[in-house]
Amino acid sequence: MTFAPLTARGLALAVLILLAACSSKQPAPEPIATVPTTPPQKAPPEVRAKLHTELAAGYYERGQMSVALEEVDQANKADVNYAPAYNVAGLVYAYLGDDRKAEQNFGQALQLTPNDSEIRHNWGWYLCTHGRERESLAQFDAAVRNPLYKTPEVALVNAGRCAHAIPDDAAAQDYFRRALAIQPGNPLASFGLAQLAYQAQRYDEARSWMRGVMTMTNPPPDALRLGECIERHLGDHQAELSYISQLKNRYPEAPETKAIATESCE
């Protein structure tokens, strides 16, 4: 069985994690942040642009894309040089599938603030999910080089996923290990390393990395399916059944659950 390291469905989720941190195409994301109140009209232009951008990000997270774009427009009217507004616009247009406008907005954001790691990350993830994985790695690397970047482990994990998609497994492993060095126990980095070990038939090592994955409150179905297949290869029937039970109970309609009866792990 081959486990895909990356799909376009992951774009919205990855960028939402990043926005929430300031800490896969799939249905509109659930709200994870309270939408800010409308900014006062007498506030300085940059303040109004910032608040409208936060509103846009909040609506984006709630899946209200048209309202998000209205707030981006208000941010641009307040301060045409406020780069984060173009960043959010890039995310929205990417989600809507308007690649031309997404690329225009990411480009404008980077022209205004070329050293902004969050924008570099989002642009890198866009490139990665649009078949330009090798180009994306340079963007992730640039994001991580900024010593002020608050969440370099996010960029490193996503760089690992994109390197895996090339495929460049040596680079992917390096990115995942660097993420773990910054944030020990990072379950997404552990999952990436478990995938790499499994595909190289290093099943004991894959099982070891899965321990980090299972620290997640709700491991995703692809992780549970990977765990099931690892244990099947190792011959641990009880452990295999445990993963199968979790898949059926947590994700009864997931493709990974349906694959239990119809697909082998080869």
Overview of this structure, please?
The chain has 266 residues and is mainly α. Helix content is 69%, strand content 0%. The chain has 14 helices and no strands. It is elongated. The termini are close together. 44% of the residues are buried.
Q: Detail the poorly predicted runs.
A: 2-33
- Radius of gyration, rounded? 20 Å
Please, what is the average pLDDT?
88
What share of the residues lie within helices?
55-70%
Major sheet size, sense and barrel closure: none
The assembly state of the depicted protein chains is single chain
Distance between the termini: 4 Å
The fraction of residues in strands falls at: under 5%
Output the structural class. Answer: mainly alpha
Topology pattern, helix = H, strand = E = HHHHHHHHHHHHHH
What would the principal axes of the Cα set say about the shape?
Answer: elongated
Number of strands: 0
SS element count, helices: 14
What's the SSE blueprint?
Blueprint: H1 10-21, H2 45-61, H3 65-78, H4 83-96, H5 99-112, H6 117-128, H7 133-145, H8 152-165, H9 169-182, H10 187-199, H11 203-213, H12 221-234, H13 237-250, H14 255-262
